[in-house]
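Final report, closing paragraph on structural work. Over the funding period we assembled a curated collection of sequence-structure pairs, and we close with a single example.
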Amino acid sequence: MDQSSSQLNYTDYSAAFYTYDILLGISAITILLMPLGVHLPADNIMRDLLRIVRLPPVLLFIFFLFVLGNFWGFIESFLFLYLKELGASNYLLGITVTVGSLSSIPFLYGAGKIMQRFGHVNIIIIAFFSHAARLMGYSFIE
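Its predicted structure, as stored:
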């Protein structure tokens, strides 16, 4: 972005939008080519869903996922504003996303094994501490 906008008086994000459009098209084609199996729906999906959602452990699980989602949304919404306020370049902003995305790939592939080993509740506790450590780390940046 910085390199393509060096002669302009503003940041030109068109390359990012074109890249996104191309990758979105590739994703759409991939989804269209996926084989779909036909499954018969359950008799009363809503009744079964309500019965499950009324369980206290499920309600707590959903609540904590909601809180973690808010933490994640807060970080994703305000991190770039905070870094820009500190004088970070667009290159650094891109690197933060790249490092975060690349470091999460091994966890996505090993999520089943990690979940079996530690359990859902412990993973949520680890996620809370990870978000706390991440926010604390951002507070030390000057």
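Residues 42-140 form one domain. The chain has a mean pLDDT of 87. We thank the funder for supporting this effort.
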